[in-house]
Amino acid sequence: MEQPSRKRGPALPVRPGILFKVRRVFGLADSPRAWYEHLLRTLKSKGWTPSRVDGALFYKWSPDGAWEGVMLTHVDDILVTGGSSAIASFEEIGKELGFGSIEKSKFTFCGKNLRKHPSEITVDMHKYHRNLQIPVVSREAREDLGRALNQKELRELRALNGSLQWLVAQLRCDVAFQLCEVQVAKPTVATLLKACSLARDLKGDPDFVLTFRHTNWLEGGLVAVSDAALDNVNSDGSVEEPKLFSQSCYCVLLGGPELVNGKRSVFNVLDFSFRSHKLQRVCRSSHGAETFGVEESLDAAELVRAMVAEARGIDILAPGAHYTVCAVPLTVVTDAKDTFDRVSKDTGFGAQKSLVLTLALLRQLLRRPLTSIRWTDTANMFVDAGTKAMDCSHLRRVLCSGTWSIEYNTEFVKQKVKSRKEPPALLEGGEQLPGEELKAEHRELRRYLENFGSKPGWHWIGSAPKQDHRWQVPAGKEPKRMEVLTFCGSPLASDPEFGPEVANPELAGVNLNHWEKEVTGEGRNWGITHFDNVAAAFLVVFQSVTLEGWSDIMAFVQDAQSTVVGFVYFLLLIVFGAFFLVNVILAIIWDVFLSVPRLRGQQMV
């Protein structure tokens, strides 16, 4: 073997003919595999058994086959729960592997905050919500929503999609359809704005918490809830016309015997058992879309069924395990009556022959022990929010409460029946209405008021016609409308004709009666970013010179004044302030520090 030349790498301080074996070290491609093999050997030596379904899952069994503990690993992060023997074994493993720290009852695992309470465990991601980085889309880019993204914007979209994907996969499955719609759409300015809107909504709702309660899972089972929407998305996953593909969503619930039997009961949802996705096959009818959705939900539920069976101590690889795992009851729920009838009854396959094989497969799977399908009312279905753009409050309420019922229950109905309002009573003769009656001589005022219906927007009350304390239009003049002032960092840019909502679409979700809350909120830096006084201006300049969020402040100034003014001002401020002035100050300080030893030496001499 010859040593590499200095052009290819450093020379090794050994004589020729010596062969080296490089061990696996951190940073090499095989280091993760080396760590897993080391962890696997250590756990096996301490009595832990790896799962047959998931290689990162381990169980600890007692000599008589009783369940003692379970361990979940994610690289070098380990989550463990169980009895005293499992905890003692875990501490021994920590001494051998050299754990950096061990936290109990309240800690963060893979970005999720886990809290153990006396009767439940809560999971949230408050910090992750608040730390979402939302890119700023310039006003010029908003003018062409169909334009393809440039390289910078494309990187921002991919980074934002990655952050949202992790959040949805770990916790926020209630917005899975919105994220799926963004991820598969074409990378245009409209897609970037939609992703920013979704991130802004999630950032404003960081209090979403999933609660895991005690359920009798040893005697209970699984419920797979499935729903699908026909022709809801097109070939690239977006919702623009034409729509050819269907969207499906399923959720697998783990609960007690009451839940499996259709009664109201508590359940727990697993992060990998909720999915909203586009069906790969084109469906010719709602019956076809619902049937394919039931097939995929049953397939996902079989995986969870194997894991639950293994946790109960069943050998899922033993001969006949295909029926052994059926000791865990499984119920599939759909709101499609035709799919339920075709699958549960041998009454033919219908006119759509392309579904024959799928229906035959479902009938065969449902003939196994403790495997069934049930129908529920559409108003009782909660996963339909994962198939179409709709209000997700019902889905969010069911997931957060952790309670549901297959049977129709008014507690879980999406739209409650409102009581019919009584019609207003007619005024009796002689009763006077408040205010002044519009008479014939007030025709100009009547015309002015009727004009509100054709020209919506904000109107200045002082611009209305007034004479002798009665409203009228001045001769030769049209009623004027108030133009709302633009505040630095606020979305209140006004349109002189139709009001501020037309000038800025972001105002669609803003309460204009309390706009100061929008300006003084977290998204606007709590109202301290402005140039209204000297102190605030110095604070803004200091923050910009430190290069902390200066681009957002520049965008605020450009919205409030003009694009050119904001660009020129911050260009000069960053170049001369951050790059030149700061370096000059650091050089002066460094020169003073260097002169101190010389002065001390002269004093000693």
From TrEMBL:
It is a multi-pass membrane protein. It comes from the Eukaryota. Gene3D superfamilies: 1.10.287.70. It is found in: Membrane. One of its GO terms (cellular component) is voltage-gated sodium channel complex. Its main location: membrane. It holds the Pfam family Ion_trans. Keywords: Membrane, Transmembrane, Transmembrane helix. The chain crosses the membrane at residues 567-594. Residues 511-593 form the Ion transport domain. The keyword Coiled coil does not apply. InterPro entries: Ion_trans_dom, VGCC_Ca_Na. The keyword Membrane applies. This is Cacna1f protein. It comes from Symbiodinium pilosum (Dinoflagellate). The lineage of its organism: Eukaryota, Sar, Alveolata, Dinophyceae, Suessiales. The gene is Cacna1f.
